[in-house]
């Protein structure tokens, strides 16, 4: 039997009685591991060897893990300091114990978070107790961390999982391929295997010299599986966003843009949302620990303050709740892109506007929501508004019907709703094509006088905020938006979904 040189080398180095890894065969033959792998698969196709793969898991200690392996886990240090302070007999001041444990910065929170979890004691009302029966020397996480640092095997799996979760250890998964001679391979070696001087391609030089007549060409297995090659493409959510933009531009709208982190003034105060409104707490939006925003027009600030405290017009009453400039200047991640609408309608962004005007944005917003099939912490909002004389709810509903018809959605339903900033207001719903369930896809209404007058707008403005991800669900039949967007998204779904036009 005549085989290429690399295949002969691998065949002779393989064993019929034990598995030899690719790395071992590479060392024995002097060939690169990738060359050995290719030769092994070719020999497997000929039935001369079998190739198996075993999953492997390895662990590496991070820099933070190295620090704790040397100094001790924060919760263990906290326990030892608590016992030294007598907390195993009676509660002791937590500050005293933390100082004695020499803990600072993030290590304090880490220690407190794991102290009770491991049964070392309790932390309550600024005092700490220590369980006298706890044994920090038997801490499984500390033992597993020490074993990894010392290069030892056999660490507790649950402890390793917890160390990975804490970022003290990194887990790597891989596969080790091994090669074993088959009976046919043994027979071939006994009968004799010769090296064939083969070439894998015909060159102009071979043709010119006539060398091609004396060489043996390598055989190609045209039935062998080829590696799958995937090209990059624009995410389906981004493609839909661009399509939405094209549709709105075609309807006569211009695009807005602006900051993702903005003041409470632009995000909420201009929308006539009282400063004690539940949606303005940290439970619903993300506050940033940055200096307050200074770039707010003083005259506009005064008019918005007056609208909140005194109302607008002769019959205006305002809110019977406190309003402070300090709160208005605080900076949050925007919970809606209506902050952009306020910037543009006020003339602050591109100068004063004369009706009629139409603007839109398709931008990301951030909310402290509970994750579920229709909610994410960050998502895209389709913001839009029209400024003109004598607008009505009928104009607003007609705009939605025209817009959604471009995406094949013609069964819109409208439900009256309350917003602090629009009156009348209503929500939009569409029917999910797979489940038949009504899905909320947006919120809309006519801006109130309390919003428009402080901005200097004297005509009607109809406005809306629509969910791009919900539009995607109605277009494609997705029932869980987390399959499309986020850390748990289904890559195969994204690769295989045909984009609708």
UniProtKB/TrEMBL annotation:
Source domain of life: Archaea
Cofactor note as given: Binds 2 magnesium ions per tetramer.
Cofactor(s) named in the record: Mg(2+)
Its EC number(s): 6.1.1.20
Location of this chain's protein in the cell: Cytoplasm
Catalytic reaction annotation: tRNA(Phe) + L-phenylalanine + ATP = L-phenylalanyl-tRNA(Phe) + AMP + diphosphate + H(+)
Domain Aminoacyl-transfer RNA synthetases class-II family profile: 244-496
Gene Ontology CC terms, in alphabetical order: cytoplasm
Annotated region described as Disordered, given as residue ranges: 1-33
GO molecular-function term, one example from the UniProt record: tRNA binding
Gene3D superfamilies reported in the protein's UniProt record: Bira Bifunctional Protein, Domain 2 (3.30.930.10), Winged helix-like DNA-binding domain superfamily/Winged helix DNA-binding domain (1.10.10.10)
Keywords on record: Aminoacyl-tRNA synthetase, ATP-binding, Cytoplasm, Ligase, Magnesium, Metal-binding, Nucleotide-binding, Protein biosynthesis
Coiled coil: none
Binding site for Mg(2+): 423
GO biological process, alphabetically ordered: phenylalanyl-tRNA aminoacylation
UniProt key word Cell inner membrane: no
Binding-site residues for L-phenylalanine, renumbered to this chain: 338, 381-383, 421, 447
NCBIfam families reported in the protein's UniProt record: pheS, PRK04172.1
Family: Belongs to the class-II aminoacyl-tRNA synthetase family. Phe-tRNA synthetase alpha subunit type 2 subfamily.
Subunit structure, interactors included: Tetramer of two alpha and two beta subunits.
Protein name per the record: Phenylalanine--tRNA ligase alpha subunit
Annotated organism of origin: Haloplanus aerogenes
């Amino acid at each position: 039997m005549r085989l290429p040189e690399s295949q002969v080398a691998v065949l002779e180095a393989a064993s019929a009685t034990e598995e030899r890894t690719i790395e071992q065969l590479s060392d024995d033959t002097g060939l690169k591991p990738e060359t050995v792998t290719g030769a092994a698969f070719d020999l497997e196709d000929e039935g001369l060897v079998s190739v198996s793969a075993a999953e492997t898991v390895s662990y590496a200690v991070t820099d933070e893990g190295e620090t704790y392996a040397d100094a001790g886990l924060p919760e263990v240090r906290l326990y030892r300091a608590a016992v030294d302070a007598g907390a195993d007999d009676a509660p002791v001041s937590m500050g005293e114990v933390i100082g004695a444990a020499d803990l600072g910065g993030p290590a304090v929170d880490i220690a407190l978070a794991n102290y009770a979890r491991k049964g070392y004691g309790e932390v309550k009302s600024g005092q700490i107790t220590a369980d006298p029966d706890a044994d920090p020397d038997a801490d499984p996480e500390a033992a597993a961390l020490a074993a990894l640092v010392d290069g030892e095997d056999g660490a507790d799996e649950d402890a390793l999982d917890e160390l990975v979760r804490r970022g003290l250890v990194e887990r790597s998964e891989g596969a080790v391929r091994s090669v074993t001679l088959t009976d046919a391979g043994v027979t071939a070696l006994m009968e004799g295997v010769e090296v064939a001087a083969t070439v894998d391609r015909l060159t102009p030089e071979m043709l010119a010299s006539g060398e091609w007549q004396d060489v043996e060409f390598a055989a190609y297995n045209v039935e062998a599986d080829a590696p799958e090659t995937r090209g990059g493409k624009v995410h389906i959510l981004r493609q839909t966003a661009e399509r939405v933009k094209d549709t709105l531009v075609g309807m006569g709208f211009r695009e807005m843009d602006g900051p993702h982190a903005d003041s409470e003034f632009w995000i909420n105060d201009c929308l006539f949302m009282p400063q004690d409104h539940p949606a303005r707490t940290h439970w619903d939006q993300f506050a940033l620990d940055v200096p307050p925003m200074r770039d707010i027009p003083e005259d506009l600030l005064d008019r918005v303050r007056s609208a909140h405290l005194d109302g607008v017009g002769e019959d205006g009453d305002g809110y019977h709740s406190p309003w402070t400039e300090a709160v208005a200047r605080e900076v949050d991640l925007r919970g809606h892109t209506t902050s952009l609408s306020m910037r543009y309608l006020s003339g602050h962004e591109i100068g004063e506007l004369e009706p009629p005007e139409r603007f839109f944005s398709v931008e990301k917003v951030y909310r402290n929501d509970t994750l579920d099939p229709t909610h994410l912490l960050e998502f895209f909002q389709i913001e839009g508004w029209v400024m003109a004389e004598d607008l009505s709810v009928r104009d607003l509903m007609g705009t939605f019907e025209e817009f959604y018809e471009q995406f094949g959605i013609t069964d819109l339903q409208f439900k009256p709703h309350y917003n602090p900033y629009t009156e009348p207001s209503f929500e939009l719903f569409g029917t999910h094509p797979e489940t038949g369930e009504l899905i909320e896809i947006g919120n809309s209404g006519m801006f109130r006088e309390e919003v428009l007058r402080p901005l200097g707008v004297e005509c009607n403005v109809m406005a809306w905020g629509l969910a791009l991800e919900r539009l995607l669900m109605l277009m494609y039949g997705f029932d869980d938006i987390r399959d499309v967007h986020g850390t748990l998204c289904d890559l195969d779904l994204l690769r295989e979904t045909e984009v609708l036009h």
